[in-house]
Amino acid sequence: MSESGYLVSQASKLLEVQSHVLRYWEEELLLPIGRNELGHRYYTRYDIQVILCIKELKKKGFSLKEIKKVIPLFYETVKQEETNSKGDNLEREVLEKENSQRISEIKNLEKAERKFETAVNSVSRSAYSGKRKKAQKAARAREQKKKKEQNRQTNKPDGQESGVPKEFMEILNRIVKERMKEQNYRNQEEEKCRKLDEKIRICQKARKEVAVAVEKEKQEKHHFFRKKKSDA
């Protein structure tokens, strides 16, 4: 074993995952596991961290098909944090950007809700005003031509007895459909944010575990060489 690489048996022991499972995940998830000069699998620290993330996601009940979609994100994340001394700041910036995007989406949805309410109120006022004018006109007509108006009321076309214009109902139905579509979009975005937060927390936990595991491996190696030296 070198400082930055592990054979499959060593990776299996470190990760507490059987070798055949590691090979199966490599094939199913298309993991870019390298090979040494002898053609044996060679797991880097990046690979170890990604496999820890996979292990945690499997515990959470995610399928390999779902996990496969985020594998590139895992590799990109661990490599950036390994090479960037300001990884914590970068992570905070990403989270702040995501939060900013969520706040922007919420504001847009609230703005759409206000527009919806304004439109409904406007249509309602328009419908009420039109209804009132029709009532006044009908009252004047009844006074002038009572008998003729009675016949007109008897023969009034269907759909106008309620005093609600057909155009108003069409507009209201369209607005309600748009409102339902916006609500569905909000629910979908909230679900995406929740899943993303869950994956970020899993990666953070996995990074801590791999750091502890690597430190433990170094200590065991140091103890082994000291013991070997003392025996010699």
UniProtKB/TrEMBL annotation:
<keyword id="KW-0805">Transcription regulation</keyword>
<keyword id="KW-0804">Transcription</keyword>
<dbReference type="InterPro" id="IPR009061">
    <property type="entry name" value="DNA-bd_dom_put_sf"/>
</dbReference>
<dbReference type="InterPro" id="IPR000551">
    <property type="entry name" value="MerR-type_HTH_dom"/>
</dbReference>
<feature type="compositionally biased region" description="Basic residues">
    <location>
        <begin position="130"/>
        <end position="149"/>
    </location>
</feature>
<feature type="region of interest" description="Disordered">
    <location>
        <begin position="123"/>
        <end position="166"/>
    </location>
</feature>
<keyword id="KW-0678">Repressor</keyword>
<keyword id="KW-0238">DNA-binding</keyword>
<dbReference type="Pfam" id="PF13411">
    <property type="entry name" value="MerR_1"/>
</dbReference>
<protein>
    <submittedName>
        <fullName>MerR family transcriptional regulator</fullName>
    </submittedName>
</protein>
<feature type="domain" description="HTH merR-type">
    <location>
        <begin position="5"/>
        <end position="73"/>
    </location>
</feature>
<dbReference type="InterPro" id="IPR047057">
    <property type="entry name" value="MerR_fam"/>
</dbReference>
